[in-house]
Design brief:
CATH topology: Rossmann fold
Radius of gyration: 17 Å
Strand content: 15-25%
Number of domains: 1
Number of helices: 9
Helix content: 40-55%
CATH architecture: 3-Layer(aba) Sandwich
Amino acid sequence: MSNQEETSTKLRYAIMGGTFDPIHIGHLAVAEEVKQKLHCDRMIFIPSGNPPHKKRVLTDAVHRYIMTVMAVNSNPHFEVSDIEVERQGYTYTLDTVKQLQKIYGDNVELVFITGADAILEVETWYKADELLKLCSFVAVTRPGYDKTKLEQKLQSLQSKYGSVIYSIDVPGLNISSTDIRQRVNGGNSIKYLVPETVEQYILKNGLYKEL
């Protein structure tokens, strides 16, 4: 079998990481767009455990995990992994990718989804040189995003590490977890910004009332 044939038979799983504090419609729209454009067989949402770059105190990982499960439950191509929330200490992307590769084996291509701005800073990540050789990436951009720097960066990473990085435009939904937390804290509605089940969970458990 040729290398091309071997590649074509591989499954493609996309990794959607984040604090998901809380998960919202924008996250789901990005995942669906990537799934469609890259023909992904599975979308794996991974709520972060204790990311080293976050300075604020995150909502308990159990709440964030449950909300993510609720949000993706209706989509048969979406699933949630608890590998980061179960890990002790800081959670690094490299460790997560290595663990997923052990779980899924060589027949799966892992694609890590991140924002275009994050790709510009990816070489500052923990053991970035190893990570960039280990899995593919997809840099998502919003409509109107100036891709000049991004395209230069992708060429540089490809040349330096042999990285496979896809660039995809996703719907420009102006929704943020920060805004949702502030709206809840202020007693304002978050209806249609998050899935209904997530909205009910937040209200039932009194999340984001004290920021």
